[in-house]
Amino acid sequence: MCLEETVMGDDTPYPFEVIKESADYLLSGTQHRPKIGVICGSGLGGLADQLDERDVFPYESIPNFPVSTVAGHAGRMVIGLLSGVPVMCMQGRFHAYEGYPLWKCAMPVRVMKLMGVSHIIVTNAAGGLNPEYKIGDIMIIKDHINMQGFAGDSPLRGRNDERFGPRFPAMNNAYDKNLIAMAKKIVADMNLTNVVQEGVYVMLGGPTYETVAELNMLRIIGVDAVGMSTVPEVVVARHCGMKVFAFSLITNQCITQYDTDAQANHEEVIEVANIRKKDLQNLARRIIVNMSEEYQES
Ligand SMILES: O=P(O)(O)O[C@H]1O[C@H](CO)[C@@H](O)[C@H]1O
Ligand SMILES: Nc1nc2[nH]cnc2c(=O)[nH]1
Q1: Distance 70 CA to ligand 1 centre (A)
Q2: Residue 71: nearest ligand to its CA?
Q3: Relative to the alpha carbon of 44, which ligand is closest?
Q4: Ligand 1 mean position to 94 CA, how many Å?
Q5: Would you call 295 a catalytic residue per the annotation?
Q6: What is the percent of the chain where pLDDT is above 70?
Q7: Which ligand is nearest to the CA of 266?
Q8: Count of CB atoms within 10 A of residue 17's CB?
Q9: In the annotation, is 266 catalytic?
Q10: Catalytic residue flag (residue 73)
Q11: Are 109 and 81 in contact (CB under 8 A)?
Q12: In Å, how far are 166, 254, 262 from 213, measured between CA atoms?
């Protein structure tokens, strides 16, 4: 198969050389050499606007990159300094429901890897299924349930390239315990303990929100928050050896009763993200500064 066919087809992940082309393009357009990557969830892209000395790359300008099609996802890579730490931020991500295969949703993580990123922060907006969770809570993700994996799909499906990682990567400890402990200290220091939770995230394919029966089933299997992203990115990040920290902003309460007319909707998701964005940006900034101290020591 020629390179062009491989790039155009959706059946198999881009080869190393194609990912490298994207990485080299970004490296040639910025002086920064970030070791920390951030994927901004729905309505959470404001962090990228806070970077100093930033270089901005609309996704359509980056070779081989998909484009964002969802409200609340600006669709650009922003590389710059946050409190002096070099960072690259995806202001907008790719979802399976947009029509992208899982490997393409997560392809930017490999681009980050080839640019030198070793630590990644993945954020999302999610529905709170744990009845204790309130709208506006921040859930540190301690684990996930990979529903697509149960069904035989994976961003790692297809031939494995050992230059990225092993055929059979472990996925326990996907969410770095030391980073979680560090984040909890920061949360306490910021007096945010009462709005921060720690729980299990599930990704469903979307774009529908869930039925009552689906939500009740998910709760039984141990889910605390429900979304339509993050898992492919985390799987690919762990496959290539990155340390992962992830959190969900609980933008709505999942509706687990039949006797209500309330309905989940994306406008509410964006609205809540807007209300909470300052706390989230401050939290992310402090985590990034601490992370940079960690990788400088290691
Ligand atoms: O996961 P992010 O991208 O934050 O967005 C979440 O919010 C959207 C639904 O409102 C879906 O895209 C879901 O995945
Ligand atoms: N699947 C799903 N994704 C979301 N993103 C934000 N809220 C939700 C939700 O309730 N369900």
Answers
A1: 9
A2: 1
A3: 1
A4: 10
A5: no
A6: 96
A7: 1
A8: 10
A9: yes
A10: yes
A11: no
A12: 37, 11, 16
Query: What tokens does 16 get?
Result: 């190393």
- When pLDDT is averaged across residues 202-231 and rounded to a whole number, the result is 97
The pLDDT tens digits for 29-52 are: 999 999 999 999 987 889 999 999
The number of beta carbons lying within 10 Å of the beta carbon of residue 287 is 21
Establish whether 98 is a catalytic residue: yes
Taking the centre of ligand 2 as the mean of its atom positions, its distance from the CA of residue 232, in whole angstroms, is 16
275 vs 29: CA distance, rounded Å = 34
What is the C-alpha separation between 44 and 285, in angstroms, rounded? 13
Return binding residues: 42, 73, 93-95, 125, 210, 229, 252
Residue 289 CA, ligand 1 centroid: distance in Å: 26
Is-contact 207 228, C-beta < 8 A? yes
Contact 46, 277 (CB under 8 A): yes
Ligand 1 site, CB within 6 A: 41-42, 70, 93, 95, 124-125, 206, 227-229, 266, 269
Token pair of 93 as six digits: 């991500």
Q: What is the mean pLDDT of residues 129-155?
A: 96
- Per-residue pLDDT band at 186 (split at 50, 70, 90): very high
The catalytic residue among 23, 48, 59, 98 is: 98
Q: Which residue has the tokens 């220091």?
A: 189
By alpha-carbon position, which residue is closest to atom 9 of ligand 1? 266
Q: Which pair of tokens denotes residue 214?
A: 């689906």
- Both tokens of residue 158? 């297809």
User: Does pLDDT of 70 surpass 50?
Assistant: yes
- As a whole number of angstroms, the distance between CA 215 and CA 211 comes to 6
User: What are the structure tokens assigned to 245, written together?
Assistant: 């920290």
Q: Is the pLDDT of residue 4 over 70?
A: no
H-assigned helices in the chain: 3-8, 16-28, 46-49, 102-105, 107-115, 147-150, 177-189, 212-220, 231-239, 266-297
pTM: 0.95
